[in-house]
Write a structure and sequence with these properties.
The chain is an alpha+beta fold. It folds into four domains: 156 residues, 2-Layer Sandwich (Beta-Lactamase), CATH 3.30.450; 161 residues, Reverse transcriptase/Diguanylate cyclase domain (Alpha-Beta Plaits), CATH 3.30.70; 229 residues, EAL domain (TIM Barrel), CATH 3.20.20.450; 139 residues, Thrombin, subunit H. 37% of the residues lie in helices and 26% in strands. It has an eight-stranded mixed β-barrel with strand order 14-15-17-18-19-20-21-22. A six-stranded antiparallel sheet has the order 2-1-6-5-4-3, with helices on both faces. A hairpin with a 5-residue loop joins strand 14 and strand 15. The longest helix has 19 residues. The chain starts with a helix and ends in a 44-residue tail after the last helix.
């Protein structure tokens, strides 16, 4: 009661009573009127609609309404004497947090304030107040503050919800397109002035439409929620993730330009999004493709960077999906080439441009060819041989894969029927073909037309047939086995199936994907244990095993020691024409002796391209013959001493410091100071690039790098400014020497 009485006096002071108010104000009210006013104020406090507070000159609480203490879950006596700031808690919202940070400045300056929004220091629930305060003076001396407050929790929450709807996706809770655009624009504007970098990832879900169409839109919405949750698990802190709409997502990564790190993040995103989902009791699997662009290299403005990332994403999806790509100037040409391929593919089959090649499958123990895999090939009249890795995904997107697959099935059966002996032919079956209820009839008809024995036909199915499991899949397996054909599970371990399916699916063979073969002979490789497990599993289930992609003798020897049944790879043969198959089988059995390197060098690729080589202040143009993560072989300079240092200019701002480790005539082997990283397209790139800001400092315009070569010294885009004569003689394309100091 003591505090209540003193508190009552404080409220009376607010009306101009004995607590330091204006005498003039007191004379305006009679004692009865003052008493009535105090009762009204007390009722107002009790109603919870508003409350009062006051502090001394040191900012410590002298009076506080009981309803405030109750809301904070504390005793009123414990709050009196505390700092006024102890009533409030920090907030995550940038604007509101800034408002709360400015409040101490106002109080220290003894300034009046009105309707400041603050968050109550209440851990149990979220409470928001609007507070006002007026400084009190006597004879020029500051006495403290008096003020009032009100609870605005309901209206503030409603306002925040409305703001969130405008800036965040209502389904996933991620930032929406509007907020992501605002954030990217703000970051790039600030970073341009500070000469900092920012990466942007565009993510598109693969096969999401199939799930949406099969299970319905509510299931599709649930799947998108789970995708959002997984993205937030793998995207680094201080990066923002948003959903742009549909199955498109975006990630902003400030101050990140290391393409090695970006590649690893992209791989994690693809991996986690490709794991199976459980949606409304159904198991479904999708995938993801990622396009990456980095400011300022690939764009200065948000529009430029988004276009670059979109183009990289388009390339990733067009080259097989489930991949990532970095933007490069070459992608403009690649996109145009892909559009041409898509148009021309529709007429390729009718114009006899599609044909089959056959890769031998060899018995591990005897080197005898026991089967051959039929692989689609496309000989384009202008582009030449188009890689299946390019046109097969396009065929799947444009629904042409069914026609191509059916043609390949009939053609392979007819070709195999004309061969002597019992050589089997393996034909790849797309998920679209497998999902067709009439597929067993097509197989039966192809066998009947060619008169090929059913046991000589092997249908290779990838794990994607288990994408959306339903009862029809067992019926399809049963129908095909009634026909009498063999079934092989292709690319085992890289897709979406589980071991449970192998107990019921009647496969005759498991094909071990070449991704498990790469590096299997290297010390510490986990692939060895995986292959051992696959072979043991196949033996237990009475299935054959085929190891794909064997190229070197050490790999072959290891597969033999593991008792893999069959081998398929370049160590025996590349895909060959039917004429070559007939010639090889003219004398009966087809036996191939393995031929290849003793050890597989998986990190070195053959290339043939022009690059720049910078020594001191002179730039040479040379030919790169091969490339690995740690070095390259170049040709074009004569008699370069060992340990000579160069800067290798790969173009588009990609520079690598290297030292000569081997030198013979016009050939030099270079070792990089820093290893290259995966570019997502099966190639390699430098981790970092020379910033356009540095080029701008050298006199070039500040813009994203266009295609071509860029000097490190002033001289414009036409070539570097040379300050001395070249140290080494160059070989031109005709093999002649050019000038030398």
């Amino acid at each position: 009661m003591e505090f209540a009485r003193s508190g009552f006096g404080k409220v009376r002071g607010l009306l101009g009573g004995r607590s330091g108010g204006s005498p003039a104000a007191a004379t305006r009210l009679s004692g009865t009127e003052q008493q009535q006013a105090l009762l009204l104020l007390h009722d107002y406090e009790q109603s919870g609609l508003g409350w009062f507070w006051s502090t001394n000159s040191e900012g410590r609480i002298e009076y506080l309404s009981h309803c405030v203490a109750a809301k904070l879950g504390k005793d009123i006596g414990a709050l009196v004497g505390q700092s006024f700031h102890a009533l409030f808690a920090p907030d995550d919202n940038e604007d509101e947090a800034a408002a709360q940070r400015s409040l101490p400045l106002i109080l220290s300056a003894h300034k009046p304030f009105s309707e400041r929004v603050v968050r109550a220091a209440n851990e149990a629930e979220e409470v928001w107040w609007s507070i006002s305060g007026r400084p009190q003076f006597s004879g020029g001396t500051f006495l403290g503050y008096r003020g009032n407050g009100s609870d605005i929790t309901a209206s503030h929450r409603s306002h925040k919800d409305a703001s969130r709807l405008a800036m965040y996706d209502s389904l996933t809770g991620l930032a929406n397109r509007h907020r992501m655009t605002q954030r990217l624009t703000a970051i790039l504007t600030a970073y341009k002035a500070a000469k900092r970098s920012c990466a942007l990832m565009m993510i598109d879900l693969d096969r999401f439409k199939q799930v949406n169409d099969t299970l319905g839109h509510p299931a599709g919405d649930e799947l998108l929620k789970q995708v959002a949750q997984r993205l937030q698990q793998v995207v680094p802190e201080k990066c923002e993730t948003g959903r742009l709409g549909g199955d498109e997502f975006q990630v902003i990564l400030p101050d990140v330009d290391d393409r090695g790190n970006l590649g690893e993040i992209a791989k994690k995103i693809i991996s986690i999004l490709s794991q199976p989902y459980s949606v409304e009791g159904s198991r479904c699997v999708i995938g993801a493709s990622v396009g990456i662009a980095i400011a300022p290299y690939d764009g200065i403005s948000s529009d430029e960077l988004v276009r670059s990332a979109d183009l990289a994403l388009y390339s990733a999806k067009g080259n097989g999906r489930g991949q990532f790509r970095f933007y490069s100037a070459d992608l403009h040409n690649e996109a145009e080439r892909r559009r041409q391929i898509e148009e021309d593919l529709r007429d390729a089959l009718g114009n006899d441009q599609i044909y089959l090649a056959y890769q031998p499958v060899v018995a591990t123990s005897s080197n005898i060819v026991v089967a051959m895999e039929a692989v689609l090939r496309w000989r384009h009249p202008e582009l030449g041989e188009v890689s299946p890795g390019i046109f097969i995904p396009i065929a799947e997107e444009t629904n042409l894969i069914g026609a191509l697959g059916d043609w390949a099935l009939r053609k392979a059966c007819a070709d195999a029927a004309g061969l002597p002996g019992n050589l089997r032919v393996a034909v790849n079956v797309s998920p679209m073909q497998f999902a067709n209820p009439g597929f067993p009839s097509l197989v039966t008809q192809a066998l009947a037309d060619s008169e090929l024995a059913p046991e000589r036909l092997e249908l290779e199915l990838t794990e994607s047939i288990f994408l959306n499991v339903d009862s029809d899949i067992d019926e399809m397996f049963a129908a095909l086995k009634r026909v009498g054909v063999r079934l092989a599970l292709d690319d085992f371990g890289t897709g979406y199936s589980s071991l449970g399916y192998l107990k019921t699916a009647p496969f005759d063979k498991i094909k071990i994907d070449q991704s498990f073969i790469r590096g299997v002979t290297e010390p510490g490789s986990r692939n060895l244990a995986i292959i051992k497990a696959i072979v043991s599993l196949a033996e237990a289930l009475d299935m054959d095993t085929t190891a794909e992609g064997i190229e070197a003798h050490d790999e072959l020897d290891l597969m033999r020691s593991l008792k893999v049944s069959q081998i398929q790879g370049y160590i025996y043969a590349r895909p060959v024409t039917l004429d070559e198959v007939e010639e090889a089988m003219a004398n009966g059995e087809w036996v191939i002796d393995p031929s290849g390197p003793n050890r597989y060098r998986s990190d070195r690729m053959t290339v043939l391209r022009k690059i720049g080589l910078i020594h001191e202040d002179y730039r040479y143009e040379v030919t790169m013959r091969n490339l690995s993560r740690t070095g390259c072989l170049i040709e074009g300079l004569l008699d370069v001493p060992i340990d000579t240092h160069f800067v290798v200019d790969f173009g588009e701002g990609q520079l690598a410091v290297a030292v000569v480790k081997r030198s013979t005539g016009s050939m030099q082997g270079l070792e990089f100071e820093l290893p290259l990283v995966d570019d997502g397209a099966g190639g390699l790139c430098t981790r970092n690039r020379v910033s356009p800001y540095l080029l701008a400092a050298a006199g070039m315009p500040l813009a994203s790098l266009p295609e071509g070569y860029y000097p490190l010294a002033p001289g414009g885009s036409h070539g570097p400014a040379s300050f001395s004569m070249p140290r080494f003689a160059e070989m031109n394309d005709a093999g002649r020497k050019s000038g030398r100091a």
